[in-house]
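Sample A.
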Amino acid sequence: MFTFSLTLIRHGETQYNREKLLQGQGVDTPLSETGVQQGEAVGQYLKDITFNNVFASNLQRAVQTAEIILRKNTHSSGMEMVLEPLLRERGFGVAEGRPKEDLKNMANAAGQSCRDYTPPGGETLDQVKLRFKKFLKILFKRMLDEHGSSGPDASAGASVAGDTANGSAAAASDVASGGLADDGLQGLSVHVLVVSHGAYIRVAIRHLVEDLKCSLPAGVKMSQLFSPCPNTGISRFILTLSQSESGPVLSAARCVFTNRKDHLENLTAAE
C-alpha cells in the first residue's frame, strides 16, 4: 500500500478568460497580468509544500502557471516538470476562439445543455475522461516505480477514510475555503502537483468522485464539489495504491477540498 497527495490547480487567467472566449486546445495564449499575479499568489500559498512530482498540460497558460508555482516554492524550485498532453484542455472544435455565449447558443439549438454539448470537431466529455484515466494510469505506475518500494511507507495508513486527518475537519465547514495550505497532507511524504484547465479539472473531479467513489468532506454539497474551477483554484485528493498482477490499483481515495481560492482574496480586494 502506498499513499500520496494529488493537488490539482487550474492555470491563471488569460486575456481570453477575461473576455469570456473559449480557448480549448487550438488557442494557446499566455497568462494575462492578472493571471501572473494569481500564479504568484497560489505559489506563495503552497510554497512550503514539497512537491515530489510536477505535471502540467503542455499549453503555455498551464506551463507558465506551473513555472511560477515552482519558482515560489521553498523546496521544489529547481524541479523539472513533466509536460503532459493528456492534461490539455477539452477540445471545443469550431467553438474555439469564440465567445462562450456562442457555445450556449449552439447547445440550445441542438436541444442540449451546454455542459453535455459537443461542438463539431470538439471532444466529448467521455473522451476527456478517457484522457484523464490514461494520465492516472501513467501517474500510478510512476508513483509505485519511483516511491512505492522505498521501504515501509508511513503514509500508507494515513487517514484515507477521511475521519481523522486535520484536512477533513478543516474542509468540512467549507470545502472550498477556510483551511490551511497543507490540509490533508499530515503523515504523507509524497506530493504530486498537476496544473491543468477548467473543463478538464471538472471532468477529473467528477471521475474521482462518481466513478472511483472517493470519500468526501463532511457536509459538502455536490453542486459545490462540481462547480466551475476558478483560475488557480486548488483541489486536493489523497490516493492509496496497491500493486496487483495487472499493475497499480487504486484501493482508496479521499477528497480533501475542491476549487479553493483563499489565496486570491487579497488580489480581489486590490482590483
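Sample B.
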Amino acid sequence: MALAVGRGFLVRPCSSSVFISKNIYKPWPARPGPVITRRFTRTAVRAQLRRPTWLPGLDPPPYLDGSLPGDFGFDPLGLGEDPGSLKWYVQAELVHARFAMLGVAGILLTDLLRVTGIINIPIWYEAGAVKYKFANTETLFIVQLILMGFVETKRYMDFVSPGSQAQADFFGVEASLEGLEPGYPGGPLLNPLGLAKDIKNAHEWKLKEIKNGRLAMVAMLGIFVQAYVTHVGPIDNLVEHLSNPWHKTIVQTLANSGS
C-alpha cells in the first residue's frame, strides 16, 4: 500500500479502490502558555489498476492498460502499438482460441472413441483424406468454402460496423444472431444458456474464455508435434505413458525419435 505524509505528494496507485484517511494530532513540546496541537494528515490511497503482468515487476506497454480481457502486458514484438491493429489482433486471437478449443475437444473425444473401439474411425490427422459416400471431396470443399466464407464475411462486416449485420435481412436469421459486441454474437443459437447477457459487465466470462482458449492453442501445438514425432494419437500416447510412467516420457520419446 502506498503511503504519503502531508500534502502535495503523488501517491502511486495499487491494486484496489479503497481510500483511507487518518488524522493524527500531536502536541508541540511543552512550553509556557496554552497547549498547541499540530495536525498531520496521513493518507493511504489504493486506486484501481491493471491485473499483474505476465512477468512480475515488468512495466507493460502503455497501450496495454489492463482494460482488455486477458491483458497481462505481453507484447514483446509491439504488434499492438497501433490501436486499429490491436482491435483486429484481439478479434483474431478470440477466433483462433475458439477454433482451438473445438479442435482439442474434437480430437480428444474421437481419439478416445477410436482407442476404446467404440467407433471405427480414422485417426484425427487422416480424417481429412476419408472418402464419404454422400458427397465427393470437391463438393464438400466447395460447400465448406461457401459456408465459412459467408460466416467470416459477416463477422468482418460486424467488426467494421458493429451491429450492422443484425439489421440486414438474410432468411430472417439475423435476429437470432444479434451481436452483443464485435466478437460476441450471442443470441439463442450461440448463447443458448443466456450467459453474459450484459456483455459490458461480463469481464470475468471473457477472461475465462480467453484463458481457456490460450491453453487450447498451446494444447493444439502439442498435439501437432506429438503426431509428427510419434505418429499416433494423444490418447495412445497417454495410455503408453501410464503403462510405464518412468520410462515413457517426452524425454525418451524425443530421444528415440532422433535415433
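B remarks: The first strand starts at residue 2 and ends at 5. The chain is about 40% helix and 10% strand.
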